[in-house]
Each structure stands twice: as structure tokens, then as C-alpha cells.
Specification:
single chain, mainly alpha, 62% helix, elongated
Length: 215
């Protein structure tokens, strides 16, 4: 058992060395902790003899909901799509750690890019009026409003476009979104919460980044 443990440690160290060169913001010891944490999240395969290589949509959504407080169904699906770079329906170890680097410690530039990709629901490099309606309507349904929520959402979309659509083409390009957020940082999550708050980040880091020998 000691030999297996030592071998596993060497494998994790080698993986951490490789990943920490590719992913910003995490030191090698922290990357080792993230690898161990990811392996714990994977759990056992439900198919005998078949290894689990990544987090499927359901497990990913559950983790983001319970660990990072992201609760909106549409946002959870959009974040999963943003993490799943190779579009294979699973978030593998590298994708998980790369995504966490932005969620936990990303620069404003990285978070602008991340949020834009989350909000670009169909991946056409624009946030359309229809996508805004879809995302904001989901938020409004949860609020007790006396007026017609559909009309309220349409009004909000028009106000948002006036604030953020700099080239006046009726949709938001990445350049529009970036310019608006740099001018007013509060617009970063304009179409729904897709980043964890400080309390969730601190709790996750405190639980995850322990000395590997203590785990």
C-alpha cells in the first residue's frame, strides 16, 4: 500500500508540474491539491471496468450549486459548456483546473472573456437580444412583480442595449461587452450570476489548499 501511495504521489506531482505550467494563478502544490480534489469528485464508475475520466453535466451542476452557490439552471448549463472546451460532454481534470483558475483568481480580462462566453448561449460570438430575453426572463420569474414580467424583461433588455451596445447593431459583440464592463464593472454579471462570491471562494480555498501530506 505504501508503494502504491508513493507511486500515486509521484504521478500527481508530475501531472501538477505539467498543468501548473499551462494554467495561470495556481502554484504547483495548489495544483496537486486540485488534482486530488478532482479525483475525489469523480467517484466510482457506474459501469464496471470503465474508468471515469471527467465530470458529466449532472455532477458538474451539483458541484457548482453546492460548492460555489451558482443556482440558476441556465447559468449552470452555460458554465458547463464554457468549462468543457473540447465539447465532449465531460469536464476533464485540465478543463476543471483551468476553469477554476478564472473562477477563483481570474483577472478582470479573464472574467470578462469567461462571462461573455457563458452569456453567448449559441456560441455565435454575439449576445443577441433573444439570448438576453431568455436569460433575464429566467431571473424575473423568481421575483414577485405585479406588472407583466415579459414586458418588464423587454424594457430591461432595451435599457441594457442602450448602455452596452456601442456599435448600435442590436446585439453585443465581445468588444461591446468588454468596453461596457471596463466602464462599469458591475455589468460583468449583467445577465445572471455565473461567478462565485468571495465567501464561497474563501471557503473552497481553505478546504482545498491544504498541505498534501495532511490530506
Amino acid at each position: 500500500m505504501a508503494e502504491i501511495s508513493a507511486l500515486n504521489r509521484k504521478i500527481i506531482q508530475a501531472l501538477a508540474k505539467k498543468i501548473s505550467k499551462q494554467v495561470k494563478h495556481f502554484r504547483k502544490p495548489e495544483t496537486e491539491c486540485l488534482i486530488r480534489g478532482f479525483n475525489g469528485l469523480l467517484g466510482e464508475s457506474s459501469v464496471p471496468g470503465k474508468a471515469v475520466t471527467g465530470l458529466d453535466r449532472g455532477k458538474f451542476r451539483s458541484i457548482l450549486h453546492s460548492t460555489f452557490g451558482i443556482t440558476d439552471d441556465m447559468m449552470l448549463d452555460a458554465v458547463f459548456r464554457t468549462f468543457d472546451k473540447d465539447n465532449d460532454g465531460l469536464v476533464n481534470m485540465e478543463e476543471w483546473i483551468e476553469g477554476l483558475s478564472v473562477l477563483l483568481r481570474g483577472t478582470l480580462d479573464e472574467k470578462i472573456k469567461y462571462c461573455f462566453y457563458v452569456y453567448d448561449l449559441n456560441g455565435d460570438k454575439y449576445i443577441s437580444r433573444e439570448e438576453m430575453l431568455h436569460m433575464l426572463k429566467d431571473c424575473f420569474i423568481k421575483l414577485p412583480v405585479e406588472d407583466d414580467p415579459d414586458e418588464a424583461v423587454k424594457d430591461l433588455v432595451e435599457i441594457t442595449l442602450k448602455m452596452m451596445d456601442y456599435d448600435k447593431d442590436g446585439r453585443l459583440s465581445y468588444e461591446d461587452f468588454e468596453q461596457a464592463v471596463r466602464k462599469e464593472n458591475l455589468l460583468l454579471e449583467a445577465f445572471g450570476p455565473c461567478l462565485p462570491d468571495t465567501a464561497h471562494i474563501l471557503k473552497f480555498e481553505e478546504q482545498t489548499f491544504q498541505d498534501p501530506l495532511e490530506q
